[in-house]
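By convention, each integer encodes one residue's backbone shape. The lines below illustrate.
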Amino acid sequence: MANFTLADVKALREQLGTGMVDTKKALEEADGDMEKAIEILRLKGAKGNAKRADRSTSEGLVAAKDNGNGTATLIELACETDFVAKGEKFITLANRVLEIVAAAGSEDAESALNVESEGKTVAQIIDEDAAILGEKMELRRVRLVKGAEQEIYLHYTSKDLPPQVGVIVGFEGTDHETARGIAQHIAFANPTYLTREDVPAEDVDRERTLVEEISRNEGKPEAALPKIIEGRLKGFFKQIVLLEQDYAKDNKFTIEQVAKDAGITVTDYARFRVGA
């Protein structure tokens, strides 16, 4: 008879988040040795990780941390199902990964995965928990936002799930309330660039060519074309440039005007939405 009790099974399940049957079998194989049972479960899960490599990870969470040194870190940790995403072990893993990559100052997922903590890389830490929970998991995105001040906004799309949209705004100034309002606007409006100058020249040229062709096909007067084209380009920039967008809370003002009135300057931002 195996040298373990139902209390041992319960304790191991709570520690690892594994199923009753798998936990009991591992303890039986390990003859009640908890450490050996953990290794058995991890080995079994690691073999499953390879089989899950091609699965999609459309669920997960976003998490953020103000690093207190003029930077803040935003991550997206992905998994396969919302059941795992809202579980305590996955949320704990996300917080652990966030702390590690934030401390390292990682600026992207590739570098973050190679950061070591207690003898293991972030990639190994994620793989171990993926093996135990039986789902593919991946650190999909990491962003380091820079600015004298930082404002973080995490949006919950469902009361049953962890945050699904995360925004960090880096700014100069002291008005955190307005910066938070801008972060909420970003969560809703999803701008692509901070300023007009950040938009790649080839994208602007492509749009200019398109609106000119549309305007000519509409039979607009030749003399009026330059003004019409610039007007339509302004609409293009409003769609994708944060500072030129109408503020979601009061569309009589642009984000640039709102920030200026509050005495702040937005210097950087990041926005992640799970699965997008």
